[in-house]
Amino acid sequence: MQFIYLAVTVALTNYAVAQSVATGMLGNATVVEDNPPGVTYTASLPSMNLSSQNNSRSNIMGSVTATANPDGIGVMFNVSFSNLPTTGGPFGKILPRF
């Protein structure tokens, strides 16, 4: 019986701690509820050739797009990179594929 009581106490304590964890040094971000619905912002990498003698495949291309959700709460991000260098990685661990 004491084991069950202890297990329940530990589970409830872990749940309470998980609910109050701050995500950063300054605390959690404030939820923004009035984003203009459907508005999109895009940042694109420059399309210049950055090749070097050591790596002829270093012309990284890509963009980051942020679109406000239809209800005005939150933003969806789309991140796209291509033509990553063949050396100097491991990019698979830094930029996981979703």
Tell me what the structure shows:
The protein has one domain (2-86). It is 22% helix and 21% strand. The chain contains two helices and three strands. It has helices at residues 2-19, 91-94, and strands at 40-44, 61-68, 75-82. Strands 1-2-3 form a three-stranded antiparallel beta sheet, with no helix packed on it. β2 and β3 (75-82) form a beta hairpin.
Summarize the structure.
The chain has 2 helices and 3 strands, in the order H-E-E-E-H. By secondary structure, the protein is of the alpha+beta class. Residues 1-18 form the signal peptide.
How far apart are the termini?
45 Å
- Proportion of helical residues: 10-25%
Strand order of the largest sheet: 1-2-3
Which parts are unreliable, with pLDDT below 50 for 5 consecutive residues or more? none
Compute the number of structural domains.
Answer: 1
Q: How would you name the oligomeric state of the polypeptide chains in this document?
A: single chain
Count of runs of 4 or more consecutive helical residues: 2
Shape: flat
As a percent range, the share of strand residues is 15-25%
User: What do the pLDDT scores average to?
Assistant: 73
Question: What would you report as the Rg, rounded to the nearest angstrom?
Answer: 22 Å
Number of strands: 3
Structural class category: alpha+beta
Q: What pattern of helices and strands is seen along the backbone?
A: HEEEH
Task: Describe the sheet with the most strands.
Answer: 3 strands, antiparallel
